[in-house]
Amino acid sequence: MAKNMELLRKYIGVLSRDERIKPKHMILFLTLVYMGLSQNSV
User: What is the CA radius of gyration of the chain?
Assistant: First the structure.
């Protein structure tokens, strides 16, 4: 689980540096990740 969060932080860092990525895509990505993490913890 901690490993996932570490990868997520790295990925978010890359996304926030990349100005071509729109905030809308960021929100969608975070939603998908949240859903994935929820399923993993169940």
Answer: 11
pLDDT digit string (tens) for 1-32? 578 778 778 877 777 676 676 777 778 888 88
CA 13 vs CA 5, 6, 33, 37: distances in Å: 12, 11, 15, 19
> Which position has the token pair 């570490």?
6
Domain count along the chain: 1
Alpha-carbon gap, residue 13 to 5, rounded angstroms: 12
Q: What is the residue range of 13's domain?
A: 2-41
Tally Cβ neighbours within 10 Å of residue 21: 13
